[in-house]
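Input chain follows. Return C-alpha cells only.
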Amino acid sequence: MSQDLPNATLKSTIDTFMQAAAKHAPPEVLTGLSGEIKKLAESGIARQALRVDAKAPDFTLPDSHGNPVTLSALLAKGPAVVTFYRGGWCPFCDLQLRAYQGALGAIRDLGAELVAISPQTPDHALSDVEKKQLTFPVLTDKGNRVAREFRLVFALSDALRKLLTHFGSVLPKFNGDDSWELPMPGTFVLDRQGVVRFASVDPNWMVRVEPTAILDALRVVRL
C-alpha cells in the first residue's frame, strides 16, 4: 500500500522557496522574471496545448538508462500520468518531481504509472533520478519532439535567455542543442485508450499541479 501523502501542499512548498529566494535575488531579476511570465500568459500559448478529450500521441522515448519507454505499452497496463518539466536546473521542477515521488505509491495503487519528460540529455535525467531518488521513468525528449506534439513548446525570449543564464541555467548545456526551447510545465492524466481525462498546462512555471489533483483525476478514470 502507498505511504501517506505529506501534509504540506506543493504550492506551499513552492511559496516557501520563493519567499527565501526573494531575500537573495536582485529585485530587478525578480521583476524581469515576473514580466516574462506575464508576457507568456498574455500570449495565450497555453490555450494551444492538448486538452481534455483529445487523443494523446503515442511515443517512445529513452529513460535515464537509455531503455525505451513506449506510452502505448504503459497504457496496455493501466492509465498513465504524463508530466512535462523544464529540467533538473529548475527549482520548481525539483520540488514538483519530489512531490510526485511522494505520491507515487498512491498513483500506482490506482493502477497507473507516472512518467516525467524533459528535453535535457539522458545524463542530466539520470542526475535527476539519483539526486531526487526517483523511482518512476524520467525520459529524454530530444529537441522537444513529443512536447511539440502535446503543443507545449515555446522559444525563450532574449530577455529570458539572459535571466536563465544569470542563474547558471544555460539551456544548450543541459539540452544538448542551441534551440533555447522549453516545454511549458504540463501534466496529463490519460485513460487506457490514451484519451486525455485531465490536463493542466500553465505558462507560469512556478505553478504546478498538486499530487492530490492527479489522484482525484485517476479515481474518476477508474469509475
